[in-house]
Here is the input.
Amino acid sequence: MTDLIVIGAGVAGMCAARRAQQLGLDVTVLEKAAAYSDGGNMVLSGGWFHAAYRSPLSDPAELLAAITESTDGHTRPDVSAAWAANVGRAFEFL
Here is the structure.
């Protein structure tokens, strides 16, 4: 018996599914894109997790510099810094 159905196997859907699993629920994930098709977030990313094209486990200062460079500085510095500081923990959670 399924306790929770998650619609979409993107990053948000997989995070929700994983957390529900940790809490003891039986989870089913439904994804409309066929495996290896041209659609779907996980397929488009190739199943790779990256942060500004770097490993999420990279040094936060390096990640922040990469974000700033790749966006030509068009980000909120406080949000970018918080993201760079915490993405490694989020990656390890997954």
Q: What stands out?
A: Strands lie at 4-7, 27-30. The chain has four helices and two strands. The longest helix spans residues 77-93.
